[in-house]
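Z., the sequence and structure:
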Amino acid sequence: MIDWLQHAPMYPIAIPLIAGAAMLLLADKRRWTRAGIALVSNIAQLAAAILLLALADGAWGVWPNGVGVYLAGDWAAPFGIVLAVDRLSAIMLTLTAVLGLASLIYSLARWDRLGVHFHSLFQFLLMGLNGAFLTGDLFNLFVFFEVLLAASYGLILHGSGVARVSAGLQYIAVNLVASFLLLISIALIYGVTGTLNLADLAVRAGTLTGSGRLLFEAGAAVLGLAFLVKAGAWPLNFWLVRGYSAASAPVAAVFSVMTKVGIYALLRIGSLLLPTGAPAAFSLDWMFAAGLATLIFGSIGLVATQRLDQQVSYCVIISAGTLLTALGMPGVRLTGPALFYLISSVLTTGAFFMLVELVERTQTFGANVLAVTLDLFDLDDPETPNRSDDVVGVAIPAAMAFLGLAFVSCSLLVTGLPPLSGFVAKFSLLSAAVAEANSSPQPADAWILVAAVLAAGLAGIVALGRTGIRIFWGSDERTTPRLRVLEAGPVALLILLCVALVAAANPVSDYLDDAARSLDEPSLYIDAVMSAQPARAVGGH
């Protein structure tokens, strides 16, 4: 095996770690040097994620079973730190890299200047996300959760302001409690099973009986509760709308993928525990009920609010509810379409959060907020190198036309109307649900899913249609904003990627279906992790 391919699973963690640490050594005045390092780091992360996508699909025969294992300390499982890559984790890494690159480019217009260490915090956030998708044991999952959360605490407060600080403190408090629950659950599980390696845990959990099994069930219940908080499930998502709405545009955009870390953890651990008799916290019935309640709550909130930033936050909740409900169905028929929906919804809400700020500039209130922000950070001083004309930039042609088309595109994607990827995702998901209903002896859950998803789409049409009319047609105080290519470009890029998903729907769906089938065969993951040998043993020294 080529050495650089052998270490490929480590790249998504090592690259942002090195870049973030290096930028801490640079003075604030070297802004463009730090920006250059951050861009190179994000592009390298994207390249590494694409490489892992190919390797997980059997490229070059490196991972014949589609699972790559990296022994970080060169100690075999379950004693050493293990990174494991399969199709699912590679998909999440690629999605994170794409969204991170778009958000980073957007931030270069002005947001990276409104505080210290923005780029380092951003890289550490990506490192935590990548590590959570790659880790093969519960303790390091907790560690990477804490890394991404610690970075997110700084990013959500980035830019100052009373509303941002107030929402940020609530966000910090809730996530600290969730982290405490996660640590308690890990301690309980380790005390009962004697292991935290996911593959080894899946083997030992099936052998537990009596009081040991009850303690394991209790630990798994607390673990599932912690993941639900991070996934934004009802009723544990009271912090999400306020926190995401108050965050700066590029930060809120990259936060779109953070709720999916909790869903990924539920899916990963649940798939490994199902064959051994999944504890109640990871049973399908429980996940279906939690997802349905979240979907209903998000739909009601979307219609009830008239603020666009809050509406996009409720779209994140609807996305989480749809995924939990679909993944709570038996079998893997809905898993592939659910992953397609996950990709489309993350790209859409990421673009939408960035678009919100641009749209607000068409309103007098939004322009006043921008002016206050510029004055607060001395960006309107003619003597400063970061003055407001550099921040606001030169007006691009047909700015209102771009904002209108982008708003319509994001609305179509969120509601699942044709012809963009949101329609393909929801159509494939509903088709799979109908097929499940026709073949299942108990079709009620599938029809409930169909009705809930259609109702959520209708709620999105009503809410976003009302908001669009008010912003673009019903305002007498609308002004034509001045946009920079650095701001409009990332929004357009994410929307175009959703268009590309439609063009490549067949190969993308095939890859996602393969990922779903691999989750249905946890023995592939378990065997790959438990059979991985240290390099010193293979080399004979």
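The CA atoms of residues 105 and 486 lie 6 Å apart. Confidence is low (pLDDT under 50) at residues 365-397.

Let me know what you think.
H.
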